[in-house]
Amino acid sequence: MLDGMDRYPGIARVPLANIPTGPNVTRGADRLLGLLRAGGIDDRSAAWFVDVVALYINAASFERSIYVAQGTTPEDQEELLAAFERLDPEQYPNMVALLPELTSGDGDERFAFGLRLMIDGLQAR
Fold first, then answer.
1. What is the model's pLDDT at position 80?
2. What share of the chain is helix, strand, coil (3-state, %, to 5)?
3. Which residues contact 111 (CB under 8 A, 6 or more apart)?
4. What angle do CA 1, 5, 21 make, to 5 degrees?
5. CA gap 12, 50 in Å, rounded
6. Per-residue pLDDT, 75
7. In whole numbers, what is the pLDDT of the chain averaged over residues?
8. C-alpha count within 13 angstroms, C-beta hemisphere, residue 78
9. Which of 41, 95, 111, 116 could cross-link with 36 by S-S, CB 3.0 to 4.6 Å?
10. Residue 61: is it exposed, middle or buried by C-beta count within 10 angstroms (0-12/13-18/19+)?
11. Cα–Cα distance between 76 and 16 in angstroms, integer?
12. Which residues, 6 or more positions from 89, have their beta carbon under 8 angstroms from its beta carbon?
């Protein structure tokens, strides 16, 4: 889904205010619901997960489309990194201590982490 949206930068904005009901999206959602139910996920959690995971994917793709429009990537944000490096460690001790982790990983790694976090949370329910 993310790859499909990324092929058309900006398209992820459309379903954020308009719930898609076309046959391809509906078919994909139905298959995901079937997998979740077959895996023992209760119906309410499965239904809400489909919504929440779609929002997560849309947001990730929409953010990527903004970077594409700007001709940058999150990793290209020298100004952002410089601003973080200027933080006062007395005032922001956790931000300063975790700066290497806060700025580590690429977009794909971070996306996969978020998706795995949602799946793990769903399984824990």
1. 78
2. 75, 0, 25
3. 2, 60
4. 70
5. 16
6. 64
7. 88
8. 0
9. 41
10. buried
11. 27
12. 96, 97
